[in-house]
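Chapter summary example.
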Amino acid sequence: MLLTEIDHVAIAVTDLDAAIDYYKRAFGATVDHREIVESDGVEEALLKVAESYIQLLTPTRPDSPVAKAIEKRGEGLHHIGYRVADCAEALAAMIAAGATPIDKAPRPGSRGTTVAFIHPKGSYGTLIELVQE
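The structure predicted for these 133 residues follows.
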């Protein structure tokens, strides 16, 4: 089994501070990590849930994939991050199974992770992020 656990559930939002406040009021959640990921054009806030995260994402520029997703579908579920021991191995296995990669090779992600994205086409409509810590 290449998947070791759910790393995060990513939710695209237009107002990161308002979303953080909502999760604090609704669940008592606090921000475990907050970072701007320039390469993806997003700012993220990670709310720890057991060994996983709720990742709140907001675009930092209008051409980012998250900005485009919000424009097309509105706020809401953006992708699922699956934790893997070896991102390159998991990416190769997904491609061999018929997945369409967005990233042709693993690349740096937030929190010092290594990541690769898989297109929803070929993955039953789900944008998948492979995450190696």
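To summarize the output: Strands lie at 3-12, 31-37, 42-49, 52-59, 76-84, 107-108, 114-118, 128-132.
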